[in-house]
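Lecture 7 notes: from sequence to structure.
We start with the chain below.
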Amino acid sequence: MTWRVGLVDSGAPEGLVRAATRFTLAGAEASAIPDPSGHGSRVATILAGASADLELVLAQVFDEAGPTTPVAVAAGLDWCVAAGATLVHLSLGLAADRAPLAAAVARALRAGCLVVAATPARGGPVYPAAYPGVIRGTGDARCAPGEISRLDAVTFGGCVRAPAGATAAGASIGAAHVSQALLRWARSGTPPAAAIQALVAHSRYDGPERRGATAPAERGDA
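Predicted structure tokens for the same chain:
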């Protein structure tokens, strides 16, 4: 079954996108602008690497003006769900907990949509990753492309390297690799608990990296 994936980010390569809407303080606009930072395009390329049988819908919440807002992210998330996305990926994290964003996440989860969001490897909570029901993705330097790690019950690590030719790295790229793993190993419409079990079953590493250890802990069934 084809995955329809919602991407809430700065943009995506035109050839990958089935539909796009731009969300700004002024409201929604029917078309997106070219990716101002390239961040969303790098994330989209990673997601698309899971399968050729994937439809991407883009909610563009970043533009040349810089930071986005919780209201814009919430509107983008709602739009992705309305557009039929069964997984929404957000390689972003906002420092403040805001009611409109929390409500949008809750609506997506009630609709049966998987929500994957980036979280930093260290530091305080960010949103929407900190909301209940969200699958959290971050970077894990142990992971090669195609590998993930289970860091806790709902947090998974992925490769920190972006596609060839890109210099980006970190939690947002790792989170994209976690969503790529879901797209590869789970079916569209899979409930969150089953999606997490699919990630656990395919995790190369179990538990956080033990700094200073002679070798990383690996899953015995890897």
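Points to note: Confidence is low (pLDDT under 50) at residues 213-222. The longest strand covers residues 17-24.
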